[in-house]
Amino acid sequence: xxxxxxxxxxxxxxxxxxxxxxxxxxxxxxxxxxxxxxxxxxxxxxxxxxxxxxxxxxxxxxxxxxxxxxxxxxxxxxxxxxxxxxxxxxxxxxxxxxxxxxxxxxxxxxxxxxxxxxxxxxxxxxxxxxxxx
Length: 133
Known about the structure:
Blueprint: H1 3-25, H2 31-56, H3 63-104, H4 108-132
């Protein structure tokens, strides 16, 4: 198996994950395409993994065992993609919220916190230096 084969598996898994997130978040603009992708991509994943397990690797798997392994690997790839895309969504929304909140307060909370942290650290350093002498 080549790197391109596995790269295509990862890309298909991420496409499937993104389409599932679009359906989960009910983003109407992309819902039509996401429904089609959510139906088609798992079949491609299953077919590619079955081809890899049954024909290319030439293991001694029975047909049923190759099907079970292919389904399990396809589910694992999609689940990993869903978790990755979900984490990216959470980090993006959280970053946006923090930036907007700080911008609305003219960064005063952030500046005050930095000043407090800096003054605390500086006082600790001064106390340590004075204690040493």
